[in-house]
Structure formats: structure tokens, C-alpha cells
């Protein structure tokens, strides 16, 4: 059996729960003669690939920064894309593995799973599952962090997509699954609870110096704020036992705009001086075991948690654990038998339970420690976890086949009108044309060269007035198999709609007369439209040319982010024709642009979702004289007003999230893409009277824009 494991964390360069899990899982599988390959982003190496062998485990370190995608995707999205490239490379080199396992954290499996769903021959024979560890979109909420701010918000969306797109999900606790179900749609998710693996060790030393210890990250999710409040109340009543804080690290506490450790030291300065609160800082992993052996009680006061390795390791040592009920550890701890529980829902329960522990006889405490160790050996040993996992994998060996694309938030689907006479498998391509003779032949040639051969090309001349453009268009009509239809000048929306009404194909595409497509685009898009009944349009990434060389990375358009910012290359999509005619025609009221954005919102609102092929397949010409470049703040504000009024019920459905996205990132009209920063600093140029004079000088304006963009992308 060949097994691939994807992770951002692996010893010795990182610690923490995910790193510990991956280390134990790789060892557990290797000890059972399974070929294990672990894929890990290199921290500092400039090499493209580093392959190491470690105890029958192959480690693949790959370059995580400095790749082309880093220039137009945020760090996490670019890292996920790099994972997808490395997996493709080793698929071609070694063949497909039987199983691929990935963390959900930071959405690292987003692009591998997107490519698997959308790309032919990409890991389609492998069973690809996800083990849930530490979903950022959940933990940020309890860490009081601005989780709606880009790119953190989009990383959370990537995590949700990963969970919904995998063949199945393993969670170390039912508690985590229940928390996720409160925040996302898990109705069609296949999930199983398997505890984390942990290797056994020799019988632990029974020494006990009587210390009360907190070990973990100093972040709100781990409960230090609540715990110290409980201790303050005890100390103020005469309790004299100190609490030792081990670990912590530098973790920013957003509500106070300072490091969490610094905040707690300042707040409890009096108790630190009295010797009741002792911060010991970071301890090297090789010395941690020895340090924890001195604890009488290890306190795990999480306000939300999965199945922290701290609990497993301390119980295995035979130590007494006092843990909150707000975590998956509650599924292993039997209160009063092999550990102790309190609940943040009943703050007094902490003091009551702590006093009960301190009143235990030595014999009773040792008995509880023995039961704790026994529980971990029974439930989390390599033997137990391996057997449970292999039984599951044997059942799930074949990858899941689905007829519906796993959107994060599927919408209720309206039935489209069924036009008569559409020709099966025929692609109708509509090209709106107005005085663009300089570019039309290049556009048409790219369409002719498409490897999707069953197509018709319809050029709608929207009342062109330039004689040279008309002559060139006539020549194109003579030399190429295209149909040219003329109408009085009525604008871009009307031209697209008229062309769509003339389409005879089962599939429909639009392309502006100055743009081009990759020869493989239509074939790839139509394959996806055939495969998924709930996918009604397909887009791709865009490469700018002409007056720009940037890349526009687009994304599957889903609410609520879609309702703040256009996420997809709307003017070069491929549709199921009946769906576009029913729900996606351009609104002629959008006289200044954004008609294609409005069209996408209408499609998604009606339950006819769209997806993005994550590769450059559309070439979008940037011209200073184009309609898009003539946008200004006030024309966009007017168009946003039309869109929000037209789709009022759709906006209302996600009003709370939309408000938070806008508050965190600024006006949606200034966003670049969700995987990077929020509002552009171009907003400053629009709004500031101080720099308003820059608008009158093109050179200075461009310099200022680049400066602000650099600041925004830091």
C-alpha cells in the first residue's frame, strides 16, 4: 500500500498537535510495512525538492515561496497550489498512491482537491481523505481574531471546501464535528471518529512536587483568560497554590493589540509579584517530559478544542488532568475515574473540582493516574488506531464518485426554461464587437484553434461606426467559418443577450472581441459541465496582456464573498445554454459595466453554481481606452446599488456576514482577490483630498498607485 501524507508541520522543525499527529501517524504506518511519503513545505531551503529517508518514511520537502503563484495568490492559497503541483509531479513519477491524507488546517488540500474534481487524470484513482485538526475558521472565532479579514477569511473558506470535497473526513473527536456542524453544511459529509495515535512508553516515574501546571499556547482558545480569572478568585479568598505557565510563545491578542503573554503579565502583575503566577516560557521538547513529571495536576482549560495531545501525553504519564468539558478530550476522560472535568458553563465548577483533586489521598491519586494511562494505551496505541484506521480504509478504498460538485453553500436550484432545438454537444461562442477591427482576427483565430471542434462562432456587430473596423470584420467573415450578425448600437449587454438568443448549441460561451482563449479551455470546461449536474458555468484564471502582464486568479463564486466582490472572469465563461438564457442574461441597466458580475450573482442565486479551472486559459487584453478602464468610483457605486436592489433577498440571506466582510476589509469595489489583502489602497487615491491632485498627472498617479499596492500586499 502506498500512502501520502500532506502537512505543514513535521518534526524537528515544528511542534504542536499537527506535527505530533503526523509524526506518530507516519511511524505507525511505516511500522506496519506501509510505504509512507510525507510532503512538507520547506522553511528556508531554496531547492525545489529535497528527498530524505527517515525510519522507512520518505520525506519530500518542497519550495514554498518564490513560486510564480506567490505573486498573485496569498501565502496560504499559493502554498496549496504548490502542494497540487508537487503531487502531480510525483503522480507522474511514481504513479498514484492508494491513499492521500491531508490536514484541513490552512486549506492546504484546497487546490489538490479542486484539481482532482475539475481536471482529468489528476489523482482520480486515489482515495483522498482529510483529518480534521484545528480549523482556523472555528478557532479564530474563539481566539477573538478578525476572522472576516482577508486573507484569513478566504483561508477559512478553503478549509470548509476541503472538508466538503474530500472522499471522507476523520475527526479525532465527535466534539469537533458537532462544532463544525454549527458553522457549515455537513449534511452530505461522510465522517468517522478515530482518536489520535500515540506510542506507549516505559512506566513513568511516580514523583510529584505538587505543582499546578498549564501547558500550551497562550491563546484565548486554550482558555488561559478564564483559568486565570478562576485562580484570581481563589487567590483573593486565600488560596496560596501558584499556577505554572509552561509554553506560550508569541501570540497576538487582537482585542488588546498586544502579545497575549504581555497582556496577562500586565493584568496579573500583582499576583506575579506574590509568586502565585509563574511564567516559565518555552521549554525544549526533549526537556518537557521531565518538566511535566513534577506536576501534581495538569490543567487544560480550553474553551474549544479537538483532541489536544497535551491531554493524551499527560494521561499516558499517569498524571492527573483537570480539563474543561469544551473539547474532544471529554470523550476520553471519565470524570473522577481517570481524570477530572469542569465546565466553563458553570464557572464555580473549576474551583470545586480543583479542591476535590487536592483533597485526594496519594493512593487514590495514583489509582486515577494508572487508569488514565490504561485508557490511553487502550484507545490511542498504534495497534488500536492502526486497526481501526485500516478497517475504515478498506471500506473506503475506492474514491467517492459524485454527480454534484461539493459547493460550500449549495443554493436551492430553480429549473431552467428548456429552449427547443439546442444541438447536443455543440458549443456556441458569442463575440460582441464594436469598432475593434484591430483585434478581432486574433480573437477569432484563437477560437478556431480551440481543440473543441464542434462549435459555432457568432459575432454580434453592435452598430460599429469605424469604417476600417467594418472592413476588417468583413474580411474575417470571408476567411473564417464565422457568422456575423449586425444590430443597431445598443450596448454590450444587448449584444451579448442577442447573441445568446441566436445560439443553437447545448453549450454557450462569451468572449470579448479583443481577448483570446487557450486552445484547451473549452474542452476542459465542457467536460466539467457534463460531469456535474449542479455546475452551470465554468471559468478559469486570466492572463492580462497588452498594457498589463498581471494574472487574475479567479475563484468559485459563492456567497457571501461573491456579494461583496466579483470573484470570476465573468466575460469569458462557458455555460449550459438553457441555464444562461434562464438566469444569466446581462441586465441592460448596467450601462457602465459590471453586467457580467450581475449575471453571475443571478446564476448562483438561482442554484446554478459555477466553478473555476485553476489555470490560465483566458487572455484578457488591458487597454487604457477600454470600457473597464473607464470605471470610476461613482459609476461603480451606482451599479452596486442596482445589483443589491435587484438581488435584495439573496443579500439579506447573508447580511450579517456581508457586513462583517465589509467592516473588516473596506468597500468591496476596491478588493483585489480574497486570497490576498482586502480593500486596495487605491481607495486612498479615490477618497483623499490631500492626494486628489495626483489624478491630474498620470505619471505621478501610477507611481503612487504602485507604492500603495506594495504597502497593501505586505
CATH hierarchy: architecture of the largest domain: Alpha-Beta Complex
* Portion of residues within helices: 25-40%
Describe the largest sheet: 9 strands, mixed
**Any idea what the radius of gyration is?**
29 Å
Low-pLDDT runs: 681-696
Mean pLDDT over all positions: 90
CATH H level of the largest domain: which superfamily?
Spore Coat Polysaccharide Biosynthesis Protein SpsA, Chain A
Which percent range describes the beta-strand content?
Answer: 15-25%
Structural class: alpha/beta
What is the compact description of this entry?
This protein has 25 helices and 25 strands.
Main attributes of the structure:
elongated, Spore Coat Polysaccharide Biosynthesis Protein SpsA, Chain A, 714 residues, eight-stranded mixed β-sheet, 3 domains, 20% strand, alpha/beta
Describe the structure.
With 714 residues, this protein is of the alpha/beta class. It folds into three domains: 192 residues, Glycogen Phosphorylase B (Rossmann fold, 3-Layer(aba) Sandwich); 177 residues, Glycogen Phosphorylase B (Rossmann fold); 221 residues, Spore Coat Polysaccharide Biosynthesis Protein SpsA, Chain A (Alpha-Beta Complex), CATH 3.90.550. Helices cover 39% and strands 20% of the residues. It is built from 25 helices and 25 strands. Strand 9, helix 7 and strand 10 form a beta-alpha-beta unit.
What is the secondary structure topology, with strand pairs?
Blueprint lengths: L1 E5 L9 H16 L3 E8 L6 E6 L2 E7 L11 H20 L4 E5 L6 H9 L8 E5 L4 H7 L9 H14 L3 E3 L2 H8 L9 E3 L17 E7 L6 H13 L6 E6 L3 E2 L4 E2 H8 L1 H5 L3 E5 L3 H8 L2 E6 L8 H8 L3 E5 L15 E3 L5 H11 L3 H18 L2 H14 L27 E11 L3 H12 L6 E8 L4 H13 L3 E5 L4 H11 L2 E6 L5 E2 L3 H11 L3 E12 L4 E2 L21 E3 H7 L11 H11 L3 E14 L10 H14 L1 H6 L1 H11 L16 H6 L10 H15 L2
Parallel strand pairs: 1-2, 1-5, 2-4, 5-6, 6-7, 7-8, 9-10, 9-14, 10-13, 14-15, 15-16, 17-18, 17-20, 18-19, 22-25
Antiparallel strand pairs: 3-4, 11-12, 20-24, 21-25, 22-23, 22-24
Helix pairs in contact: 2-3, 3-5, 11-13, 15-16
Amino acid at each position: 500500500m502506498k500512502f501520502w501524507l500532506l502537512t505543514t508541520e513535521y518534526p524537528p522543525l515544528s511542534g504542536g498537535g499537527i506535527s505530533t499527529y503526523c509524526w506518530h501517524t507516519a511511524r505507525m504506518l511505516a511500522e506496519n510495512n506501509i510505504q509512507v511519503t510525507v510532503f512538507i513545505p520547506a522553511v528556508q531551503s531554496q531547492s525545489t525538492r529535497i528527498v530524505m529517508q527517515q525510519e522507512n518514511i520518505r520525506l519530500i520537502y518542497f519550495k514554498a515561496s518564490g513560486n510564480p503563484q506567490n505573486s498573485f495568490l496569498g501565502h496560504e492559497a499559493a502554498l496549496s497550489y504548490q502542494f497540487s503541483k508537487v503531487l502531480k509531479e510525483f503522480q507522474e513519477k511514481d504513479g498514484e498512491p492508494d491513499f492521500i491524507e491531508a490536514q484541513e488546517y490552512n486549506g492546504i488540500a484546497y487546490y489538490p482537491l479542486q484539481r482532482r474534481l475539475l481536471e482529468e487524470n489528476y489523482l482520480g484513482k486515489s482515495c483522498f481523505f482529510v483529518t480534521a485538526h484545528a480549523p482556523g475558521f472555528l478557532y479564530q472565532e474563539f481566539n477573538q481574531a478578525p476572522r472576516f479579514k482577508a486573507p484569513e477569511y478566504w483561508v477559512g473558506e478553503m478549509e470548509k471546501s476541503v472538508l466538503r470535497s474530500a472522499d471522507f473526513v476523520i475527526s479525532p473527536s465527535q466534539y469537533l464535528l458537532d462544532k463544525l456542524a454549527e458553522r457549515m453544511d455537513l449534511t452530505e459529509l461522510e465522517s468517522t471518529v478515530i482518536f489520535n495515535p500515540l506510542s506507549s512508553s516505559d512506566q513513568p516515574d511516580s514523583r510529584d512536587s505538587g505543582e499546578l501546571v498549564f501547558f500550551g499556547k497562550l491563546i484565548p482558545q486554550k482558555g488561559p483568560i478564564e483559568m486565570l480569572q478562576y485562580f484570581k478568585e481563589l487567590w483573593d479568598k486565600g488560596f496560596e497554590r501558584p499556577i505554572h505557565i509552561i509554553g506560550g510563545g508569541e501570540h497576538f491578542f487582537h482585542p488588546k493589540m498586544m502579545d497575549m503573554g504581555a497582556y496577562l503579565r500586565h493584568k496579573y502583575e500583582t499576583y506575579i509579584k506574590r509568586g502565585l503566577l509563574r511564567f516559565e516560557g518555552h521549554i525544549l521538547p526533549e526537556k518537557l517530559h521531565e518538566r511535566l513529571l513534577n506536576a501534581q495536576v495538569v490543567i487544560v482549560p480550553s474553551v474549544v478544542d479537538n483532541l489536544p495531545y497535551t491531554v493524551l501525553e499527560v494521561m499516558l504519564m499517569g498524571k492527573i488532568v483537570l480539563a474543561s468539558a469544551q473539547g474532544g478530550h471529554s470523550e476520553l476522560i471519565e470524570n473522577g475515574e481517570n481524570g477530572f472535568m469542569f465546565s466553563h458553563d458553570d464557572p464555580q465548577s473549576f474551583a470545586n473540582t480543583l479542591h476535590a483533586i487536592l483533597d485526594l489521598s496519594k493512593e487514590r491519586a495514583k489509582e486515577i493516574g494508572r487508569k488514565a494511562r490504561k485508557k490511553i494505551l487502550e484507545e490511542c496505541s498504534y495497534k488500536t488506531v492502526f486497526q481501526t484506521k485500516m478497517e475504515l480504509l478498506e471500506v473506503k478504498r475506492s474514491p467517492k464518485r459524485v454527480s454534484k460538485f461539493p459547493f460550500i453553500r449549495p443554493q436551492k436550484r430553480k429549473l431552467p426554461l428548456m429552449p427547443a432545438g439546442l444541438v447536443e454537444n455543440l458549443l456556441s461562442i458569442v463575440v460582441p464587437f464594436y469598432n475593434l477591427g484591430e483585434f478581432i482576427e486574433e480573437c477569432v483565430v484563437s477560437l478556431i484553434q480551440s481543440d473543441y471542434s464542434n462549435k459555432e462562432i457568432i459575432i454580434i456587430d453592435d452598430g460599429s461606426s469605424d469604417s476600417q473596423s467594418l472592413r476588417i470584420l468583413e474580411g474575417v467573415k470571408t476567411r473564417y467559418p464565422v457568422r456575423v450578425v449586425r444590430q443597431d448600437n445598443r450596448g454590450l449587454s444587448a449584444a451579448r443577450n442577442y447573441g445568446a438568443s441566436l445560439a443553437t448549441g447545448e453549450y454557450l460561451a462569451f468572449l470579448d472581441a479583443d481577448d483570446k482563449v487557450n486552445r484547451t479551455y473549452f474542452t476542459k470546461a465542457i467536460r466539467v459541465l457534463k460531469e456535474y449536474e449542479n455546475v452551470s458555468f465554468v471559468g478559469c484564471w486570466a492572463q492580462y496582456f497588452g498594457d498589463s502582464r498581471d494574472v487574475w486568479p479567479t475563484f468559485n463564486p459563492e456567497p457571501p464573498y461573491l456579494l461583496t466582490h466579483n470573484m470570476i472572469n465573468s466575460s469569458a465563461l462557458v455555460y449550459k445554454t438553457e441555464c444562461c438564457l434562464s438566469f444569466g442574461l446581462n441586465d441592460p441597466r448596467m450601462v457602465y459595466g459590471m453586467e457580467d458580475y450581475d449575471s453571475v450573482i443571478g446564476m448562483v442565486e438561482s442554484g446554478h453554481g459555477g466553478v473555476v479551472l485553476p489555470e490560465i486559459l483566458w487572455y484578457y487584453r488591458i487597454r487604457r481606452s477600454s470600457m473597464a478602464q473607464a470605471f470610476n468610483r461613482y459609476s461603480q457605486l451606482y451599479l452596486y446599488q442596482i445589483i443589491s436592489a435587484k438581488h435584495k433577498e439573496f443579500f439579506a440571506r447573508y447580511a450579517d456576514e456581508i457586513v462583517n466582510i465589509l467592516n473588516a476589509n473596506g468597500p468591496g469595489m476596491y478588493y483585489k482577490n480574497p486570497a490576498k489583502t482586502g480593500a486596495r489602497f487605491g481607495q486612498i487615491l479615490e477618497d483623499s483630498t490631500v492626494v486628489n491632485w495626483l489624478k491630474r498627472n498620470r505619471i505621478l498617479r501610477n507611481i503612487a498607485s504602485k507604492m500603495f499596492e506594495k504597502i497593501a500586499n505586505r
